[in-house]
Amino acid sequence: MQYISTRGGVPASTYTEIVLQGLARDGGLFVPKEYPQVSLETLNSWRGLSYAQLATAVISLFAKDLNRSTVARLCESTYTEETYCQGRPDSDFKKITPLVWLEKDLGILELSNGPTLAFKDMAMQYLGALFEYILGKSEGELNILGATSGDTGSAAEYAMKGRKGIRVFMLSPAERMSQFQRAQMYSLNEENIFNIAVKGNFDDCQDIVKKISADLEYKKSRHIGAVNSINWARVAAQVVYYFSGWLQATNSETEKVSFAVPSGNFGDVLAGWIAKKMGLPIDKLIVATNENDVLYEFFRTGRYRIRDAEHTFVTSSPSMDISKASNFERYVFDIVGRDANRVCELWHELDVNKEFMLTASEWQTVRESGMVASRSTHEDRLNCIREVWEKHQFLVDPHTADGINAARQFQDGNSKIICLETALPTKFAHTIHEALGFNPPIPEVYEDLLSREQRVIERENDIEQIKAFLDEKLGL
Ligand SMILES: *Cc1c(COP(=O)(O)O)cnc(C)c1O
């Protein structure tokens, strides 16, 4: 299988070539030339598989230049009960992503029982194993430089810790993260993980990463890479749990299921779109947004109007506080008939005017695509957390609550909707307390988290100081 760019300006490449890269050199995103197809017969034959076997079957379709036995080894070492049993104590860990039914037509796919208690572990843990394998073959090294305001940074660190050939330099805004998130990252005591607290906000951290990455000479000589949500290996690994959710929800291969997906950078719901394009019988993909409702506006009107950081609200589902969804371009590429010139045109318009509007026929394609959206407010979130707790004694985090709230708007008493659980409530205790008047339980592995010793390097909001620190650690 070959990968091409959504902007059409780079030669076709293989899976192992693109997974260590971020953006394609033409500014586009890598996508498979064609989506692999899974027949209903094959789908049915996957019913008895373990999660690791299912992941092997799905990821192999995308990783054509790796031996199937290599993919199997990576998946078997990644998707283990030991790694994914750290969240809800009463979960069915053997399934890795157990589906629990709140109502006969509303299920929650548990994706947050991994090491950092958020769904990002599902793909990031696999990425760690994959990178170590690829680097090991070429005796290469990779220095991952990132900025985080919470979930991504910790998922990356827990996936990369102790991996040969890999170091992680993670910038975070000092004093701006939740107590739990801070403790989760800063308590890691690993030789290849460097937490750098920058005196500034998340945008300042992000700016430093962007500037360093734009210096191609520096980037190349220091083997700097990223693990952000546009990484294809992450997206492909996320496709797996849509198959898992569907297989758990159905008995017959023709039954359609809808998914509600708390969304920010559009990576999670894009994986659902790809699963659907591969032939998985998905009815609707419901994009759940919070007050940062750029995608909600798009799916109502065909108009995509991004906002800058200043006009992005700080909400109680913070991991969805995004007003420019980095993976959205991959979906639009499909909508415009995979016409790279049209994508260039639209994204040029976006650069200049901060918005674009689809043509009537493109908009028609969106409406027929089965993707719809919903918006939740802080009040909706609190009400949903309360309602689900009172009705079902099930505790959901604020992001998952946005997903359930979205699912509610499309529930017809007939077809099944699965809401993806994107984090555990303990990560956002403050909002749970506001909704219910008590703190969520802390999983056993993290009981002593807040009292663990924390290690963090402090630096000014100054690119030269960060570069100097990197060079020192790289022995330059
Ligand atoms: C990252 C994240 C999201 C958003 O996922 P995208 O793939 O960026 O759309 C939602 N909820 C939580 C808890 C997250 O960490």
Summarize the entry for a quick read.
α3 crosses α4 and α10 crosses α11. This protein is 42% helix and 15% strand.
Features of the shown structure:
Rossmann fold, 19 helices, 476 residues, 15 strands, alpha/beta, six-stranded mixed sheet, single chain, binds pyridoxal-5'-phosphate, 15% strand
What does the model show?
With 476 residues, the chain is α/β, with parallel strands linked by helices. The protein has a domain at 93-116 and 233-436: Rossmann fold. It is built from 19 helices and 15 strands. The chain has helices at 15-18, 40-45, 51-62, 68-78, 120-138, 151-160, 179-186, 202-214, 216-221, 232-249, 267-277, 294-301, 328-335, 340-353, 360-368, 378-392, 398-408, 429-436, 463-473; strands at 3-5, 30-32, 99-103, 106-110, 142-147, 166-173, 193-198, 224-225, 257-262, 282-289, 303-305, 355-357, 371-375, 416-421, 457-459. The strands form four sheets. Strands 3-4-14-9-10-13 form a six-stranded mixed beta sheet, sandwiched between helices. The chain has a five-stranded parallel beta sheet with strand order 8-5-6-7-15, sandwiched between helices. Strands 1-2 form a two-stranded antiparallel ribbon. A hairpin with a 2-residue loop joins strand 3 (99-103) and strand 4 (106-110). The longest helix has 19 residues, at 120-138. It is globular and about 60 Å long. The two termini are 39 Å apart. The site of pyridoxal-5'-phosphate has 16 residues, from helix 11.
